[in-house]
Amino acid sequence: MSAEALPTALDIRKVAQRGSDIRAVLKPSDLPRFRALLVGDQGTISTRFRFSRDEENRHLASVEIDAEVEVECQRCLEPMPTHLACRSELAVVWTDEQAAALPKHLEPLIVEDQFCDLMTVVEEELILALPPFSYHDTEHCRKLTRVFSDPVVEDEVEEKRNPFDVLAQLKPGEKH
Ligand SMILES: [Zn+2]
User: Fold this and answer.
1) pTM greater than 0.85
2) 27-86 pLDDT, tens per residue?
3) Which residue among 16, 45, 46, 112 is least enclosed by CB atoms within 10 Å?
4) Distance from Cα 98 to the centre of ligand 1, integer Å
5) How many angstroms does the Cα of residue 133 sit away from the middle of ligand 1?
6) Residue 76 C-alpha to ligand 1 middle, in angstroms?
7) Are 136 and 73 in contact (CB under 8 A)?
8) What is the separation, in whole angstroms, between the first and last Cα of the chain?
9) CA 38 to ligand 1 center in whole angstroms
10) Cα of 158 to ligand 1 centre, how many Å?
11) How many Cβ atoms sit within 10 Å of the Cβ of residue 80?
12) Beta 115-116 vs 107-110: how paired, if at all?
């Protein structure tokens, strides 16, 4: 079963102990900072958190996020659908020292007390996953298809004529 929101004050010790599996399907508008980077409210964000404890008694969260959203093509400025997939193994830590001591395969999830805001976790993962620039495939980009289909013959003739004008100006005997 998927809920429509994630807990914003999750007791991290409790869910790690229980081995909880929490899923939710969100909308872009549920995540305002991420939504600000998109072109529209369309799309769905499927999330899954699996909590556990490891042999060193760390509290772990295995995160899976799949988002189908719309970003702006930087070439034609039209919306384009994009898929973002995040897979992270987070370890709950309370201090920077604990974060620095984590093995490489674990990323720190810094919490101030024992409560964690999963909506913020999802929002930050998605913001990191978003490429800085997005472009349509060449056959789907409005800008490129427009270039090929528009009547631009006159401009081309103009451009082709220019080199001859230059040659004409350089005829022997003429001074510049
Ligand atoms: Zn485009």
Assistant:
1) no
2) 999 999 999 999 999 999 999 999 999 999 999 999 999 999 999 999 999 999 999 999
3) 112
4) 44
5) 11
6) 4
7) yes
8) 81
9) 15
10) 28
11) 20
12) unpaired
